[in-house]
């Protein structure tokens, strides 16, 4: 993705909801997009899938998949790509499965929509996929309706459906948010196994720094529709370059040592896209803000890899962080 910008008319003027988002995802790589609610994570994912269907939206920039430009691709071409090449799983599988057909029937149909196979062959593949996803007694589960399964089983079934046509890219939008922590750990394990067992790349969208720490090779931090920082996950956790990344990490309870009575919180809230300041969007909440922040910082080498902040560029790294371990809490 290069310089993706999505603008919508708000109050009579065009407002950028996403601005100049740029990243590359390699084969068999797991990348996390992390940010608060409203930071633009879902819009970024929907843009890859060609699913931004908002009247008046203006989309600029480039999304290339295996060398092929997706921006401006007609919906017919997108339909062929979705499911077969790029698949998506969502937070709540209840909204992805229709309640009136069995899980197995729905996965069979997905397979048959993309491949010329008969019912029996499709069902055999469905059962095999459910088994691969760790679903116990997959034949019986295939005969169940969505409401008859636990949240964890439904999420496994949805990932099975997403993988049914061997996509090379899986986009998972908050796939574990609705699950309890034990099941969440199992699903993250499953996502990590996809590159090994299926050779897939995964784009994982989450608001939870613990989830990216456990799962992602690289992490991109979004703030107010823009990239704040991007780099290898380990580097981001050890030496974040953007005060926002550092503040997100500091708001996670440390795993070792004494726990502070109150965790540090980031004061204020992100600006609405229409009220974004002209300079750095984080400056009004930033403990390190100074006059240079009146100019919007470009993404530059620094921090974990690339950072949109003048501090690292000016050779003024952030003070060392307190706790270094992650307890898997929400950010
Ligand atoms: N259809 C729409 N019409 C107007 N504004 C929209 C629309 N969809 C998204 N937005 C705005 O775009 C911004 C980014 O939204 P997006 O859903 O991508 O955020 P997000 O990071 O995925 O948040 P969440 O974690 O809550 O899902 C938000 O300010 C949101 O209000």
From TrEMBL:
SUPFAM superfamilies: P-loop containing nucleoside triphosphate hydrolases (SSF52540). Pfam families: ABC_tran, oligo_HPY. Gene3D superfamilies: P-loop containing nucleotide triphosphate hydrolases. GO terms for cellular component: plasma membrane. It is a peripheral membrane protein. GO terms for biological process: peptide transport; transmembrane transport. GO terms for molecular function: ATP binding; ATP hydrolysis activity. InterPro entries: AAA+_ATPase (IPR003593), ABC_Ni/Peptide_Import (IPR050388), ABC_transporter-like_ATP-bd (IPR003439), Oligopep_ABC_C (IPR013563), P-loop_NTPase (IPR027417). It is found in: Cell inner membrane. Keywords: ATP-binding, Cell membrane, Membrane, Nucleotide-binding, Transport. The keyword Membrane applies. Its main location: membrane. The keyword Manganese does not apply. SMART domains: AAA. Residues 1-249 form the ABC transporter domain. This is Putative peptide ABC transport protein. It comes from Gluconacetobacter diazotrophicus (strain ATCC 49037 / DSM 5601 / CCUG 37298 / CIP 103539 / LMG 7603 / PAl5).
């Amino acid at each position: 993705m290069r310089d993706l910008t999505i603008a919508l008319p708000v109050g009579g003027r065009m407002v950028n909801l996403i601005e100049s988002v740029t990243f590359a995802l390699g084969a068999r790589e797991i990348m996390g997009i992390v940010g608060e609610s409203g930071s633009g994570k879902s819009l970024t994912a929907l843009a890859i899938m060609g699913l931004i269907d908002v009247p008046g939206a203006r989309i600029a920039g480039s999304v290339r998949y295996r060398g092929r430009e997706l921006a401006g691709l007609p919906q017919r071409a997108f339909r062929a790509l979705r499911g077969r090449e790029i698949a998506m799983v969502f937070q709540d599988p209840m909204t992805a499965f229709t309640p009136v057909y069995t899980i197995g029937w729905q996965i069979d149909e997905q397979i048959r929509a993309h491949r010329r196979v008969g019912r029996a062959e499709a069902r055999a593949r469905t059962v095999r996929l459910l088994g691969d996803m760790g679903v116990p007694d997959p034949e019986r589960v295939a005969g169940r309706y969505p409401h008859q399964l636990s949240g964890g089983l439904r999420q496994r079934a949805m990932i099975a459906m997403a993988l049914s046509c061997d996509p090379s890219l899986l986009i998972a939008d908050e796939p574990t948010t609705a699950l309890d922590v034990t099941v969440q750990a199992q699903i993250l394990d499953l996502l990590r196994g996809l590159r090994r067992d299926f050779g897939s790349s995964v784009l994982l969208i989450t608001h939870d720094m613990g989830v990216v720490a456990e799962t992602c090779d690289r992490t991109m931090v979004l703030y107010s529709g823009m990239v704040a920082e991007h780099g290898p996950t380990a580097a981001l956790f050890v030496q974040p370059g953007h005060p926002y990344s550092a503040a997100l990490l500091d708001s996670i309870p440390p795993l070792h040592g004494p726990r502070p009575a109150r965790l540090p919180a980031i004061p204020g809230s992100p600006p609405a896209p229409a009220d974004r300041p002209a300079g750095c969007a984080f400056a009004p909440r930033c403990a390190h803000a100074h006059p240079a922040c009146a100019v919007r910082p470009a993404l530059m080498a620094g921090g974990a890899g690339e950072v949109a902040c003048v501090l690292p560029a000016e050779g003024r790294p952030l003070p060392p962080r307190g706790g270094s371990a992650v307890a898997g809490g929400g950010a």
